[in-house]
Predict the structure.
Amino acid sequence: MRLISYNIHKGIGGRDRLYRLERVVRVIEHEQPDIICLQEVDQGAARSRHDDQPALLAEHFGFAHRLFQLNHRLKVGGYGNLILSRWPVTRHHQFSVRLGRKKNRGAQVCTIATPGGDLRLVHWHLGLADAERHWQVRHTLQHAGFRDCAGTATLLAGDFNDWRNRLAPMLADHFGLRPIATPPSRFRTFPAWLPLGSLDKAFGCARIRVERAHVVGSRLARVASDHLPLVVDFELV
């Protein structure tokens, strides 16, 4: 099974600032994923021609199972997190992980009926401050929506915004989740044109056996967004 996590920057190139959603589509298409986790997906925003990106992306990839979470509203439209799955989503929870007056962010927790068994997937786009991110992780993994699927094979993916990789000890010590994209120096994803930070990460429980993980560093990926995508090949054991 293959999962891709990708901050698509609303389909706007990181350097040329042009809205070209088709570039993002081609980057994803080349990887042929079964589960797609996207951050910064626009819906009805003027900067992206008022496109309904969740609908366009779901239609293009032919995935019938879609979860969109609108986290941040603009004057017109807004943007958020999107999960597309080749296989049925049997249950899901979507909730805010906003801390105080900081920018609203969200977490998605869902169960996917994969050919290898049920997968509990957590998808998020965490905040910019260290204390904020630690709170968001605890809030999500202690949420009833997460505990609802206790015992299910678990995979976390998304934009962690964790430049110094400070979340890994907490995820390992308190929740039994180990980093998949390690060492971080081999999985730098931001900025796309000259990657310095390993911001896009994945963690899994002991039942996730990783066959391969890699960052897509193609010429197209370096212009399609301001992040490079992370791809994880895995199976459930």
Q: What stands out?
A: The CA atoms of residues 65 and 96 lie 21 Å apart. The chain has a mean pLDDT of 97. The longest strand covers residues 35-43. The radius of gyration is 16 Å.
